[in-house]
Amino acid sequence: MYSPNHGVIIEFLRMGSYVKVSAFHEASMTEVSIVGDPKETEQKLKQTVIKKLNYVLNKENTRKSPDHAPKKDHKGGIII
Predict the structure, then answer these.
(1) Would you tell me how many other CB atoms lie within 10 Å of the CB of residue 30?
(2) Number of compact structural domains in the chain
């Protein structure tokens, strides 16, 4: 999850009729990006990319949790 104690680099790149916003979380080496309307405020685009970064970081942490490890059946398969 995003924390103010860890650095996040945000980059805005204008590409014609849209703007690409990328966020890079330094501690986890995780990067996400969104494509937005260049007429939208910088703050709104930042909020959106941070929200996506939080989602991805939380998803990765949940996947690494031992509670969410795949369960195996007695035949060698994985129970979903």
Answers:
(1) 15
(2) 1
